[in-house]
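Why should sequence recovery work at all? Because a backbone constrains its sequence more than one might expect. Tight turns favour small or flexible residues, buried strands favour hydrophobic ones, and helices have their own preferences. The token representation captures these environments compactly. In the example below, the structure is given first.
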């Protein structure tokens, strides 16, 4: 068991120290800083709304969509390729089994 002894309380005969108060300039600086950040955040939010064009932010959200998400169409980088379906079918056709030579 631990026993703690607290120091005895001494009665101060002189006047107690006054708590420190903030100066007017420090209060003004703190208020100005808070006002600046509030204005900055408000401006950022307004700019976001203007950029969206009035749409709600959850309008295009994937969880609220009715259809499955569609991947964006990839742009062609160069000229279109010519697809030869007949050559592709010939390549994928099953090759005939080789005939044994000595039979």
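From this structural description, the recovered sequence reads:
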């Amino acid at each position: 068991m631990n026993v703690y002894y607290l120091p005895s309380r001494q009665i101060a005969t002189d006047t107690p120290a006054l708590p420190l108060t903030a100066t007017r300039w420090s209060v003004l600086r703190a208020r100005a800083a808070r006002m600046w950040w509030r204005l900055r955040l408000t401006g950022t939010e307004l700019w976001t709304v203007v950029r969206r064009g009035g749409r709600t932010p959850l309008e295009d959200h994937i969880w609220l969509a009715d259809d499955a998400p569609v991947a964006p169409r990839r742009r062609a980088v160069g000229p279109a390729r010519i697809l030869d379906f007949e050559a592709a079918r010939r390549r994928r056709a099953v090759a005939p089994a080789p005939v044994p030579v000595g039979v």
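A few observations help interpret the result. The chain has a mean pLDDT of 79.
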